[in-house]
């Protein structure tokens, strides 16, 4: 995507014409989308009252992290739409299996990587809490003392601040309930038990920072202690901000890495610069899939038009992105799905799934299936592939390096 605000195939609407279209919609009593169409425009032609030309450096795309195949085998759990997996794939890992219990997410995985072994609906439960089933399935393809990597991010909702901000402060769900959650809150230990059974050379745990802080860190410490007791050397949990690793988005995630071959796992080194959201966003979304945008009401667009870079629309609780700095965290909500994406830096509308995927560093050819709302869910829950690639490279060079 171009880094300069010049990617449209036609000039955007001038403010005077835009205001006339707004007035036309009111006078005719029609929706803004219809008024725009009547005048030969669409939402992508809209402009803010204040905009500037900008040019920002572009980050390396995932393909630039592609390295000579190391052949290190990878098994993933709670795979989601595959952000972690395609990052490790770019780093040269050999994908062995993925476990995902959501059938829609499995469809996305199978569409993009038809040769992967995806264990999930409709042919498998894909449910990590069903430890016996997972072990039975994996024993057919993975030996004990597995010379590879297990990677997994147990569902983070019980520990997520953003998740609980959806609830009223007086409600019982307002505080992060963590391990009191009877299902998702226990999946970390289900995953730990699977690691202990197969004893892979290396494991990786990914979650939101709240997992580290909950109960003073007692639960995470207990999980790590169990892994140390079976021979793992575990690095201290570390929170990484994706913006420090070439992702045009502020996104903090917690990682725990352990190895059982005596070598200390390391993390990738932060980069010296950040990349702005404008490095991957322009007016022209191109011919990629998942480019559908929300059909906004006139009053919403009128409010958005008056926003400056980085300013929030308080009524809609959405922010106009600043093209020169990384985006705010891409969230799992979307069209009719519990939340909205941020506002495009140069078009007064919320982002499409594809634009969010670009902020997450997914390649444009990677397609998300399902309703638009569920596409947003998949993208918002994913590990940025570019960050995952750097984790994979760091693990390969530290844990699997030749003695």
Write a structural description.
This protein has 403 residues and is of the alpha/beta class. The protein has one domain (51-403): 3-Layer(aba) Sandwich (Rossmann fold). The protein has 13 helices and 10 strands. It has helices at 15-28, 32-38, 83-90, 103-112, 131-139, 161-164, 187-198, 210-213, 218-229, 298-305, 353-359, 372-381, 385-398; strands at residues 73-77, 94-99, 118-119, 149-152, 202-207, 233-234, 238-241, 252-259, 312-313, 318-319. The strands form 2 sheets. Strands 1, 2, 3, 4, 5, 6, 7 and 8 form an 8-stranded mixed β-sheet that branches. The two termini are 42 Å apart. The relative contact order is 0.16.
- Principal-axis shape equals elongated
CATH class value: Alpha Beta
How many H/I helical runs?
Answer: 13
Work out the count of structural domains.
1
**CATH homologous superfamily identity:** Vaccinia Virus protein VP39
Under CATH, the topology is which? Rossmann fold
**Roughly what fraction of the amino acids lie in strands?**
5-15%
- Based on the coordinates given, report the CATH architecture: 3-Layer(aba) Sandwich
List the uncertain runs: 1-8, 157-178, 181-185
What pattern of helices and strands is seen along the backbone?
HHEHEHEHEHHEHHEEEHEEHHH
Main β sheet profile? 8 strands, mixed
Instruction: Name the helicity range.
Output: 25-40%
Counting DSSP E segments of at least 2 residues, the number of strands comes to 10
The pLDDT mean sits at 89
Distance between the termini: 42 Å
> Over all CA atoms, what is the radius of gyration?
22 Å
Name the structural class: alpha/beta
């Amino acid at each position: 995507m171009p880094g300069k605000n010049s990617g449209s195939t036609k000039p955007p609407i001038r403010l005077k014409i835009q205001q006339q279209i707004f007035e036309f919609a009111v006078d005719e009593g029609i929706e803004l989308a219809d008024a725009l169409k009547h005048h030969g425009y669409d939402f992508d032609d809209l402009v803010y009252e204040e905009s500037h030309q900008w040019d920002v450096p572009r980050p390396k795309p995932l393909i630039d992290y592609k390295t000579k195949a190391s052949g290190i085998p990878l098994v993933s759990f709670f795979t989601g739409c595959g952000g972690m997996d395609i990052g490790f794939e770019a780093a040269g890992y050999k994908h062995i299996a993925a476990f995902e219990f959501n059938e829609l997410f499995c469809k996305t995985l199978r569409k993009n990587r038809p040769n992967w072994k995806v264990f999930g609906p409709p042919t498998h439960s894909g449910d990590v809490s069903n430890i016996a089933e997972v072990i039975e399935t994996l024993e057919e393809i993975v030996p004990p003392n597995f010379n590879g990597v297990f990677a997994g991010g147990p569902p983070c909702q019980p520990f997520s601040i953003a998740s609980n901000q959806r609830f009223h402060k007086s409600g019982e769900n307002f505080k992060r309930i963590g391990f009191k959650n009877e299902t998702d809150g226990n999946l970390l230990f289900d995953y730990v038990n699977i690691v202990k059974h197969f004893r892979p050379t290396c494991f990786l745990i990914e979650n939101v920072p709240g997992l580290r802080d909950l109960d003073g860190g007692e639960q995470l410490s207990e999980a790590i202690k169990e892994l140390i007791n079976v021979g793992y050397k575990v690095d201290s949990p570390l929170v990484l901000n994706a913006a420090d690793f070439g992702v045009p988005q502020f996104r903090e995630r917690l990682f725990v890495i352990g190895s059982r071959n005596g070598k200390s796992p390391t993390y990738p080194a932060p980069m010296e610069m950040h990349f702005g959201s404008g490095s991957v966003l322009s007016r022209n979304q191109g011919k990629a899939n998942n480019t559908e945008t929300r059909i906004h009401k006139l009053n919403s667009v009128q409010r958005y038009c008056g926003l400056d870079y980085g300013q929030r629309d308080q009524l809609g609780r959405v922010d106009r992105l600043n093209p020169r700095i990384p985006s705010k965290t891409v969230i799992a909500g979307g069209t009719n799905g519990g939340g909205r994406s941020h506002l495009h830096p140069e078009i007064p509308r919320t982002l499409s799934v594809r634009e969010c995927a670009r902020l997450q560093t997914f390649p444009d050819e990677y397609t998300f299936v399902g309703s638009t709302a569920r596409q947003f869910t998949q993208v918002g829950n994913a590990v940025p592939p570019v960050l995952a690639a750097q984790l994979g490279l760091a693990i390969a060079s530290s844990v699997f390096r030749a003695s």
